[in-house]
Design brief:
Layout: E1 2-10, H1 22-28, E2 37-45, E3 50-52, H2 55-78, E4 85-87, E5 95-98, H3 108-131, H4 133-136, H5 143-149, H6 151-154, H7 159-171, H8 179-182, H9 186-191, H10 195-199, E6 207-209, E7 212-214, H11 220-231, H12 240-257, E8 262-265, E9 268-271, H13 279-290, H14 300-304, H15 314-331, H16 334-345, H17 351-365, H18 371-378, E10 400-405, E11 412-417, H19 429-435, H20 440-452, H21 457-466, H22 476-481, H23 485-491, H24 494-500, H25 514-517, E12 518-522, E13 528-532, H26 538-551, H27 556-563, H28 572-592, H29 608-620, H30 628-631, H31 636-639
Parallel strand pairs: 1-5
Antiparallel strand pairs: 1-2, 2-3, 4-5, 6-7, 8-9, 10-11, 12-13
The structure holds a DNA duplex (7 and 7 nucleotides).
Domain HTH myb-type: 528-587
Domain Myb-like: 536-583
Biased composition (Basic and acidic residues): 325-342, 352-366
Length: 649
DNA sequence: ATTAGGG
DNA sequence: CCCTAAT
């Protein structure tokens, strides 16, 4: 039997892609003195020997490596050096314990040597520790659990020992209770032959005291060797003290890093108190991964069950694991943990996502820049808005939101843009308002003007803002305060309506504000996206038709410019969509007609003449509504593009 | 950045 | 309306 395990190798920057050179890490964080870790694949022979993994073997786990890579990189970068994942593949009986971040091409032979060297050290520590019984009491990984985790081991034979030892090795740098790592498989180990190897006497004689490794007894030469093993490079430094310090630092630091306190019990990981052995964590990691040993294609998810988390997303799960291993001890409480996960979950947020976030935020802090004018302009109008000013106390508080990225517990602060406006920036109408104390009245005027002509941008914008205040007094403050075009739009649907009244068909007043129109729809990605529906007004439709007649269908950006420059919403795409619906409606509507229309929908039917116009235009352009000939009126509304009910505004 | 289409 | 693909 053979086992492929990963060997973590403390690297000081010399080894290949540990590229996270120390210089940079040193710069990035004062406390990141530790060295990145590089894991290499090796195979543990039955007798405990280590053999460089073959390319094939590497290939087998390559995917896995790749998978973890991104995460690992960060981890390594931050000096959080411990990450062992093991997987068992195929029923061949091979057990692969793989430590991520390994490009298999490294000098395995060298690694091998290092490994053995380190192993010795570990054994030493182990020995010492085992003599210190007290620590033992902290061991919480009950055998039952471990048994479950090591199905392969249960099958007896030499394998167990090798695994155990590798585990030990992997986490040897952890805290003083290395032996605990082997504990889990204890029972099995005893039956193993190589168990003795683990506990065999060694030369290097270090001992650890209160987290500090005493290397005093080592000779310079030994120190050099140890150094080499530890950092993966030679050193010419003769200073014993320096060497000792360097080595000790490396070793203990890694301990600190994963000093998380967990207890594994009943397949769950629960937090332990500080004093408790940190090695458990590592063991847990390995063990949980080991749990996958079952079948070849077991997915990560399986192992996560061990951690007691519901696995709703493999990726998340994996991240979670990392967090648990490396950062939880810093986070402290579950909530934060969750936040961490959440934050990670949305890494690389989509543009839209970001925007929505900011939208929420802006809604919250609405006032700000427009605050002054709001107070002056609407004080008399709506007393209710008074509540808000308090917030102004924090002027620019949230220009920046820094989220604490705990990757590897590095504590790197990542600044996030808090506000992103989807639509293009608009002129700040609030400033305009300033000059028109009467606000509403002025706006009304403007809107009227706009009605006659095509209205300039600013004018129409204003009208949009101010027009239908009466219908929704509560929202007034929003009107004045809303500053982004989008928000404005949302806040008020008015303007156009007022205009509509001029028309023969009066359009029922929008009973809902933009906010109420916001509907969250579940997204495939689990996220919820906001979908606001802004009913098309007759005026808009008319404009659209005019535009189409003028520019022809398809030239929507042009139409948008000409006829809808004032409507910040209604993108060219919207126009296109609306036209599509109109087209459909016009054709579908003709035959059957009025019958079912009525007020059922709460929206007014599109005046026939409009539809006729549309039809004509369509004819002119030889446009035929999709599926017209075939599926006609049957599902008129249903066939409409999204929420736009055919034949209605 | 615009358009066309699907959802 | 939203999202994408194709221009």
């Amino acid at each position: 039997m053979e086992t492929v395990i990963g060997v973590d190798d403390y690297d000081d920057g010399k080894l290949d892609d540990s590229g996270v050179d120390r210089s940079s890490s040193a710069l990035s964080s004062p406390k990141q003195i530790s060295n990145p870790v590089v894991y290499k694949l090796v195979r543990v022979e039955g007798d405990g020997r280590l053999v460089p993994a073959t390319d094939d073997e590497v290939m087998e786990v390559e995917d896995f490596l790749e998978y973890e890579n991104s995460e690992m990189r960060v981890v390594a970068d931050t000096g959080q050096s411990l990450e062992c994942i093991s997987i068992e593949r195929s029923s061949s009986g091979k057990l692969r314990l793989e430590c991520s971040e390994g490009t298999a091409e490294a000098d395995l032979g060298k690694l091998n040597a290092k490994f053995q060297m380190l192993q010795k050290v570990k054994q030493e520590e182990k020995l010492r520790l085992s003599s210190r019984s007290p620590i033992r009491s902290h061991v919480q990984i009950d055998s039952q659990c471990s048994a479950d985790k090591f199905p392969v081991i249960n099958e007896k034979d030499q394998e167990a020992p090798s695994i155990a030892s590798s585990l030990n090795y992997c986490h040897s740098n952890q805290s003083g209770s290395i032996d605990q790592c082997s504990r889990p498989s204890e029972g099995v180990i005893e039956s193993g032959s190589s168990a003795s190897a683990v506990y065999s006497p060694l030369k290097p004689d270090f001992s650890m005291t209160d987290g500090e490794i005493c290397l005093d007894k080592l000779s310079i030469k030994e120190l050099h060797e140890l150094f080499k093993v530890t950092f993966g490079r030679e050193t010419t430094v003769k200073d014993k003290q320096w060497l000792k310090r360097r080595i000790a630092m490396s070793l203990t630091n890694s301990c600190d890093v994963s000093a998380t306190t967990f207890t594994i019990k009943d397949n769950k990981i629960s937090r332990k108190r500080e004093e408790e052995c940190s090695a458990n964590v590592n063991a847990a990691a390995v063990i949980s991964a080991e749990n996958m040993a079952g079948e070849g294609d077991v997915k990560y998810a399986d192992s996560y069950a061990v951690e007691g988390y519901t696995v709703d997303d493999i990726q998340v799960a994996s991240e979670t694991r990392l967090d648990n291993l490396h950062t939880e001890h810093e986070l402290g409480d579950e909530d934060q943990q969750r936040e961490q996960r959440a934050a990670k979950r949305m890494r690389k947020p989509t543009k839209r996502y970001i925007e929505e976030l900011s939208e929420n935020e802006s809604r919250e802090y609405n006032p700000r820049s427009s605050s002054s004018n709001r107070n002056t302009g609407h004080r008399h109008v709506s007393p209710t808005s008074y509540i808000r000013p308090a917030r102004n106390a924090f002027p620019e508080v949230r220009t920046f939101v820094t989220r604490f990225d705990s990757l590897g517990g590095s504590g790197v602060q990542i600044p996030c843009v808090s506000r992103v406006r989807r639509s293009r920036p608009r002129k700040n109408i609030t400033s305009l308002m300033k000059f028109h104390p009467t606000g509403m009245v002025e706006a009304a005027k403007l809107s009227n003007n706009a009605v006659s002509g095509h209205g300039s941008d600013t004018d129409s914008e204003i009208q949009e803002k101010v027009s239908k205040p009466s219908s929704m007094p509560v929202k007034i403050h929003q009107l004045s305060t809303s500053e982004s075009g989008k928000e404005k739009q949302c806040a008020i649907i008015g303007t156009t309506e007022s205009r509509q009244e001029l028309r023969p068909n009066k359009i029922d007043p929008p009973s809902h504000t933009a906010d109420s129109n916001m509907v969250t729809v579940p997204t495939a990605k689990g996220g919820m996206r906001r979908k606001h529906h802004r009913a098309w007004t007759l005026a808009e439709v008319t404009k659209l038709i005019e535009g189409v007649s003028r520019c022809g269908p398809g030239r929507w950006s042009e139409i948008k410019r000409q006829s809808f420059s004032s409507y910040s919403h209604r993108t060219s795409v919207d126009l296109k969509d609306k036209w599509r619906n109109l087209l459909k409606a016009s054709f579908a509507h003709t035959p059957a007609d009025e019958g079912m229309n009525s007020r059922k929908h709460g929206t007014a039917p599109i005046p026939e003449h409009i539809l006729v116009r549309v039809r004509d235009l369509a004819a002119m352009n030889s446009q035929v509504p999709p599926h017209f000939s075939s599926s006609k009126l049957t599902t008129g509304a249903a066939a409409s593009v999204h929420g736009d009910r055919l034949g209605y505004l």
